[in-house]
Amino acid sequence: MTSLHVSLRRQQHPLICQLANAIERIWENQLILAPYDIPADLGYIENHLEGERLVIENHCYQTPQFRKIHLELAKVGNGLDILHCVMFPRADYPLPVFGCDIVGARGSISAAIVDLSPVRSDRHLPARYHSALSALPEIVFEQPRDLPEWGDIFSQFCTFVRPISQSENLSFIERVEAILRLHCEIASQTFPVQSISERKSIIEGQFYYCDKQLKNDKTRRILEKSFGKKWAKRYMETMLFDMITV
Q1: What are the tens digits of pLDDT across the range 130-183?
Q2: Cα–Cα distance measured from residue 56 to residue 203, given in angstroms and rounded to the nearest whole number
Q3: What span, in angstroms and rounded, lies between the C-alpha atoms of 91 and 116?
Q4: Do the Cβ atoms of 218 and 227 come closer than 8 Å?
Q5: What is the torsion angle, in degrees rounded to the nearest 10, for the CA atoms of residue 120, residue 121, residue 123 and residue 125?
Q6: Does pTM surpass 0.85?
Q7: Which residues have CB under 8 Å from 62's CB, separation 6+?
């Protein structure tokens, strides 16, 4: 997995660099990756935000089980580092949505979240996922964070914290790796659904997930300040949380 702009992560907080590498390594080892076409102008982006250089780097792939797996890295000057990762299942695979985000501000991590979000109408994870996640060892972070008001998309196993030490950084990486490995393993052993009603339910679940994520005004404001409202809307609805159509 290579990129002309892969050096961006080396300029970010070490936790982001380590985690980006770990995510890609697991994808390569456990999934059959194929290219995913994205608009040419959205792969690598540069602009300025309040006088500081803004860089966004996107890596997207697809697999038999996932219509889109997306790793985004972003950097604003020397004050803000971001990692965003989402794996969207195809319409005929009854899988949760893997999501992971890290926000670094001025050398420290202000927020780190990882989850497998259920897309079923009852907001429950499939039994195999529930069992596997329940078996993971408990990790205690000193500064857990509250989910946003629209955070009903997240599962009971969601980890949302502000890691405050190197050991907590490493614990967060280990938790992401454990969740991602079991997700890839279960996904690879999952068969597609056959009924139209099951596909409809999966599509509706992903619509709900994307609609809630699009309510993240912090991301929207940053993009609007640098690129304008029209571009920000297109980017959020095309690159970040595009609605499933098939």
Answers
A1: 999 999 999 999 999 999 888 899 999 999 999 999 999 999 999 999 999 999
A2: 28
A3: 17
A4: no
A5: -20
A6: yes
A7: 33, 34, 35, 36, 68, 69
Summarize pLDDT for 183-217 with one digit per residue, the tens.
999 999 999 999 999 999 999 999 999 999 998 88
Tokens for 99, please give them.
């999501």
114 contacts 172 by C-beta, under 8 angstroms: yes
Instruction: Please identify which residue in the block is written with the tokens 């080892």.
Output: 29
- C-alpha 38/C-alpha 234 separation (Å) is 12
* Closest-CA residue to 13 (of 135, 139, 152, 173): 173
Q: 69-98: b or e for each residue (b if 16 or more CB lie within 10 Å)? A: bbbbbbbbeeebbbbbbbbbbbbbbbbbbb
SS3 assignment, position 33? coil
User: Per the structure block, which two tokens stand in for 170?
Assistant: 């490493």
